[in-house]
Design brief:
Layout: E1 4-7, E2 12-15, E3 23-32, H1 39-57, E4 61-69, H2 73-82, H3 86-103, H4 119-131, E5 135-138, E6 141-144, H5 160-165, E7 181-186, E8 201-203, H6 207-217, E9 221-227, H7 231-246, E10 251-257, E11 260-262, E12 265-266, H8 277-283, H9 286-294, E13 302-303, H10 306-332, H11 345-366, H12 371-390, H13 398-417, H14 425-440, H15 444-459, H16 463-475, E14 478-483, E15 486-491
Parallel strand pairs: 3-4, 3-9, 9-10, 11-13
Antiparallel strand pairs: 1-2, 5-6, 6-7, 7-8, 11-12, 14-15
Helix pairs in contact: 2-3, 4-6, 4-7, 6-7, 9-10, 10-12, 10-13, 10-14, 11-12, 11-13, 12-13, 15-16
This protein binds one RNA strand through β3, α1, α5, α7 and β12.
Length: about 500
RNA sequence: GGCCCCGUCGCCAAGUGGUAAGGCAGAGGUCUGCAAAACCUCCAUCACCAGUUCGAAUCUGGUCGGGGCCUCCA
């Protein structure tokens, strides 16, 4: 089955056919670096990280470009507020962005260009647009003339007349049409600037993405991504600039991810209801955040809440518990040919399910990157593995052990495509436990002492005391697990 | 006001024409001194109404409810 993607431009799912067979050029709008990233940025970047990973998994040679917009009105304003150079400010938040993305386990794109390093390309495109009469200079500013581009608003599917009704030309702007947008802005005193044919100034928002994407991916490329909120005006204007300058189709597939909501409402800076990635990572393991974000389809809105994050933690823990148990089973049990002469129908069924796991996974991902469905299939593998491990009478059976190993390896491999299950299960679970202890203000030694006391009580058949200890710990979120090998504990 | 999206089990969430994946929670069972974990079994007819169709959660129209974009925003 071919990969199908939902294309904002056509409003439909389409078969994915890259311009050059086997190769994919993908550009994703990065961040404007003037503040810390929030969970919405995390979603966008994780979504496209997974798309990047899956395309490679599917055999494509992917050129993934994600930019930093490091010159912009907001950066300048924030820098002035803080009394620092805007370049310094941008540098600081590029560093913060890189840290956040690394913490979230993102693969590094093939190319991470910065707007300020491409002023030459930007000026060239603007000049080209002026030469083609698609843009005009006015008092040191340069504006794009949207009426000159017949395809304007084809991405956002709006109506020029109605759009115009709501806009007006601000004082000091030399726009001919209120819908026109700035390609170049003349520098005001104290602002950073570059020399240009129109005097000292800086690029407007949008043009940097046209310049960088076309420089690294060519005038036409396959995928352009970003959050839904970038459809208008940012991506609409990118199309106008790029196609206006080249006369060629700019992007084949436009992909947009949905928002992160808080209490069913869009999270945004203007509403003030946003959570930074750093704050969230103080409370939750990065992989939990990733897992949570991938349990919804990338185009759907997702509601951010403690309840949902805790559900995600429970779910991800289930994977790691099973992976850990599988690892232990595989190293503790030696295959012995005599231990399984006949295979039950149930075992057969589990084998079959493991057999088709990868196909199921790919089928889900081929349908517009349906990570939620893909994760559902992975949960079934977990159940299969636990069933194998529960079948004690066959614990040395080579067939079952081989199936278990196969399932474990597939789970890790396919999880890797989602950026999941990459940690050592034992370490991951220990980290989770110690984080839980810290939150509850508990100490490992204290718990282990109580477990020892309970062991003695149980040995003396003093079950009242044993149960009292268990209840006491349970109240603090510590769950005891008795087995033949002894008692272990975990955080709820 | 214009354009667009959504409304699936208590909660989260897939499914876009052939009679509802998965997770969490819940019920019963196996295991256990009792539990927990794990496993097994059970648990929805898809906001509402009217159509199209042999057949609709899936298509059309309407109603109600929620949200987004139109200004910086992932």
């Amino acid at each position: 089955m071919p990969l199908r993607v939902y294309n904002t431009l056509t409003g439909r799912k389409e078969d994915f056919e890259p311009i050059q067979p086997g190769k994919v050029g993908m550009y994703v709008c990065g961040v404007t670096v003037y503040d810390y990233c929030h969970i919405g940025h995390a979603r966008a970047n994780i979504v496209f990280d997974v798309i990047y990973r899956y395309l490679r998994f599917a055999g494509y040679d992917v050129n993934y470009v994600r930019n930093y917009t490091d010159v912009d009105d907001k950066i300048i304003r924030r820098a002035q507020e803080r009394g620092v150079e805007s370049r310094k400010l941008a540098e600081e938040f590029i560093g913060a962005f890189d840290e956040d993305m690394a913490a979230l386990g993102l693969d590094i794109p093939t190319c991470q260009p910065r707007a300020t390093e491409h002023i030459g390309q930007i000026v060239d495109i603007i000049q080209n647009l002026i030469d083609r009469k698609m843009a005009y200079e006015a008092g040191g500013d340069v504006y794009y003339s949207v009426e000159k581009f017949p395809g304007y608003l084809k991405l956002s599917k709006r109506n020029m007349e109605e759009m115009r009704a709501g806009t007006r030309i601000a004082p000091g702007e030399g726009k001919i049409n209120p819908m026109d947008f700035a390609l170049w802005k003349a520098a005001k005193p104290g602002e950073p600037f570059w020399e240009s044919p129109w005097g000292k100034g800086r690029p407007g928002w949008h043009i940097e993405c046209s310049a960088m994407s076309m420089k690294y991916l060519g005038e036409s490329f396959d995928i352009h991504g970003g959050g839904k909120d970038l459809i208008f005006p940012h991506h609409e204007n990118e199309i106008a600039q790029s196609e206006g300058a080249t006369g060629k189709p700019f992007v084949k597939y436009w992909l947009h991810n949905g928002f992160v909501n808080v209490n069913q409402e869009k999270m945004s800076k203007s509403l003030g209801n946003f959570f930074t990635i750093r704050d969230i990572l103080k409370k939750y393991d990065p992989e939990i955040v990733r897992f949570f974000l991938l349990t919804a389809h990338y185009r759907s809105p997702i509601d951010f809440s403690d309840k949902n994050l805790e559900d995600a933690r429970t779910g991800l823990t289930r994977f790691y518990e099973t992976l850990k148990a599988a690892g232990e089973t595989l190293s503790n049990h030696v295959p012995d040919d005599t231990s399984c002469v006949t295979l039950t129908p149930e075992a057969r069924e589990i084998f079959d399910r493991i057999e088709v796991l990868e196909d199921r996974f790919s089928e889900a991902m081929d349908d517009d990157f349906n990570t939620a469905l893909a994760i559902g299939h992975l949960f079934e593998a977990v159940r299969g593995m636990n069933r194998i491990m529960g079948a004690e009478e066959y614990s040395e059976c080579p067939l079952l052990l081989a199936a278990l190993r196969d399932a474990r390896d597939k789970l890790v491999k396919l999880g890797g495509v989602l950026g999941l299950f990459g940690a050592d299960p034992t370490l991951w679970l220990e980290r989770k436990a110690s984080r839980g202890l810290q939150e509850k203000g508990l100490e490992k030694e204290r718990i282990e002492a109580l477990i020892e006391e309970r062991r003695t009580a149980r040995a003396n058949r003093d079950f009242a005391r044993a149960d009292a200890i268990r209840d006491e710990l349970a109240e603090k979120g510590v769950i005891l697990l008795d087995s033949k090998e002894g008692t272990t504990w975990r955080m709820k």
